[in-house]
Amino acid sequence: LQSLLDMMVAEEESLKERLLKSIALCRKELDTLCRELQLDPCEAEEESTILQMEKNLRTRVEVMLKQKRDRKQELKTLQEQDRDLCDILCTTPFCIDSNAVPSLEDLDRYRCHLASLAAEKEQRREEFVSSKRQIILLMEELDHTPDTSFERDVVCEDEEAFCLSMDNIAALQNLLQQLEARQSLNEAVCTELRSRIVALWERLQVPVEERESSAVH
């Protein structure tokens, strides 16, 4: 009986030692996780058995590890969206440490930044589509074939693949203004020529029927 009791005591002391080691490791890991997650240090539990304390600490470690994984995964997702938007808008990515665990405030700022970029992308896309439509109509009216790489990109390239950088938007507006100027010049020349034709008709006393047959042109 004494041998059995000694063995039971030894097992309990061994269990206690394992629990104390586990508690020390959990507290160390919790301190690290609190720093990484930028949270206040975890306070030690009072009036709790060693077994319950070890269980509670392990549970808190698991919860905080999940928070860490979730934040890192969200950061990865946001960075992927950021890269896609930066490729389209030709802007620099959001400045954030990819190796560190982002704080909740960091993630909020990142989401706001991406929402702003997405709105800017839509605004530029609408401007591009509107300008492209006008440019195509003007080129058809002027019988102008795209003769530069930029003009071919504007007219022929897939709208989703067009880089919406500020330089490209400015070049797009410049092209549109050039075509509008050529159209205005052509219209002015046409108006002048029509006036001269009418004056010549009057001087030559061309019949109304002949004038109407030519007026269609």
TrEMBL record:
CC terms in the record's Gene Ontology section: cytoplasm; mitotic spindle midzone
| Top-level taxonomic group | Eukaryota
Q: What is this protein called?
A: Protein regulator of cytokinesis 1
Q: PANTHER family given for it?
A: PROTEIN REGULATOR OF CYTOKINESIS 1 (PTHR19321:SF1), PROTEIN REGULATOR OF CYTOKINESIS 1 PRC1-RELATED (PTHR19321)
Gene Ontology MF term list: microtubule binding
Q: Which GO annotations describe the biological process of this protein?
A: mitotic spindle midzone assembly
Q: Please give one Pfam family short name.
A: MAP65_ASE1
Please name the gene that encodes this protein.
PRC1
Chain ranges passing through the membrane: none
Organism from which the protein derives: Aptenodytes patagonicus
